[in-house]
Amino acid sequence: METMRRTVACLFVMTLFLLWNSAVLANSRPGSTVSFNQDWRFYLGEVANGQAPALDDSAWRSLNLPHDWSIEGEFSEKNPAGFGGGALPGGTGWYRKTFTLPPGAAGKFVFIDFDGVYRNSEVWINGHYLGKRPYGYSSFEYNLTPYLKRGAEKNVVAVKVDNSQQPNSRWYSGSGIYRNVWLTTTNHLRVAQWGTYVTTPEVSEQLAKVNIKTDLRENMSGQLNTLSNIELTTIIYNAAGQEVGRSSSRKTVSSGQAN
């Protein structure tokens, strides 16, 4: 009987985990999120002004992400990474992508999301510096909106990846944009990145209480009226894609007070 009780409890926890995955991962950023992995240019080595929009990168290698340039190198005990880093080369690499905005992005805010870049990446859009992400295992996001060209005009995003300081890991890390990249368009009122939080304060063999907190952000664009009515609907799906729960709440906020 005790074994059966433990089995039921284990299955129940696994079910909650699946519900959490469905609620948080499937649609944690309502809006339009599309893969940004296709049609990048890559150059292994230092490039002067590699972020410049006018730079001719036609001779660079064409590839799709995710990409790891270290695994393409030669194994050698002379590589600075050492055996702990896989005895493969590091170095510095540049990625560039030229793109136009999708029609649905007109009048909206646009973000680029990196699931992981190893390591010490720096990002530019149309020559404007967006920032640096130290190390390489955490995801990060930049707001492209103020620097984008709309309509049929071309945009250029450039990423410099610096994995030249070796050794820097106790295991093989790889080098480059080794995880997915996404382009997200949102309305002026949006759910923050990782803005959905799920907790289960009460769990028993019969039922569980699930609390979901959503962090809303207003892009300070003046698009909200002085007072705006916001309705937030949260839907929970099980692993089979079936809806198992839904709740809605309304709130009246002033412009810039949506957090």
Describe this structure in words.
The protein has one helix spanning 2-25; strands spanning 32-35, 40-44, 61-63, 91-99, 109-114, 121-125, 128-133, 140-143, 155-163, 181-186, 189-203, 208-218, 227-237, 243-254. The longest helix is centred in the first third of the chain and has 24 residues, at 2-25. Strand 11 (189-203) and strand 12 (208-218) form a beta hairpin. The strands form four sheets. It has a six-stranded antiparallel beta sheet, with no helix packed on it. With 259 residues, it is mainly beta. The protein has two domains: 2-30 and 188-254, no CATH class; 32-186, Jelly Rolls (Sandwich). It has one helix and 14 strands. It is globular. The model is unreliable at 1-28 and 222-226 (pLDDT under 50). It is 9% helix and 41% strand.
Question: What is the secondary structure topology, with strand pairs?
Answer:
Blueprint: H1 2-25, E1 32-35, E2 40-44, E3 61-63, E4 91-99, E5 109-114, E6 121-125, E7 128-133, E8 140-143, E9 155-163, E10 181-186, E11 189-203, E12 208-218, E13 227-237, E14 243-254
Antiparallel strand pairs: 1-10, 2-3, 2-4, 4-9, 5-8, 5-10, 6-7, 6-9, 11-12, 13-14
Please supply descriptive tags for the structure shown above.
259 residues; mainly beta; 4-stranded antiparallel sheet; 1 helix; globular; disordered N terminus
